[in-house]
Amino acid sequence: MIRICFTCLGNICRSPTAEAVMQWLIDQEKLGDKIQLDSSGTGDWHVGQQADPRTRAAAKARGIDVTSIARHAHSDDFGKFDYVIAMDRSNRDNLLRMAPDDAARAKVHLLRDFDPKSPKDSEVPDPYYGGEDGFNEVLDICDAGC
Ligand code: 4NP
User: What b/e sequence results for 82-101 when a residue is b if at least 16 CB atoms lie within 10 Å of its CB, and e otherwise?
Assistant: First the structure.
């Protein structure tokens, strides 16, 4: 089993989107017995909450359900996941600080570094303080990275 955790700041917009898009792709490819997903946030303000209603609505319009409940990223995650995928460089730097050793640090990547069309070190922009377009852009970017 390959275990992947997507991580952003609040765990209510970007990483729940990445998790849901990836789950949709896994379901399409019938890889559910090979890949398991989760998501987390480096901040704890929204722990226990559903994803942002704008995140859920934008995904739903594409037939994708966002079902995650926000949780706080933890150093134990590095023992539970093979990949910890950060949405932006700040998330990545926070994860690298939390990682207990080199093996853990090697699990940390930026989502957009998996998209051959994105320049190295590109970020998934935070849509939280913006308009609806931002949530659609996050969906497109996550789709390309996943
Ligand atoms: P996310 O977006 O990191 O993509 O979940 C945010 C959600 C909440 C906050 C910031 C970013 N916040 O400051 O509460």
Answer: ebbbbbbeebbebbeebbee
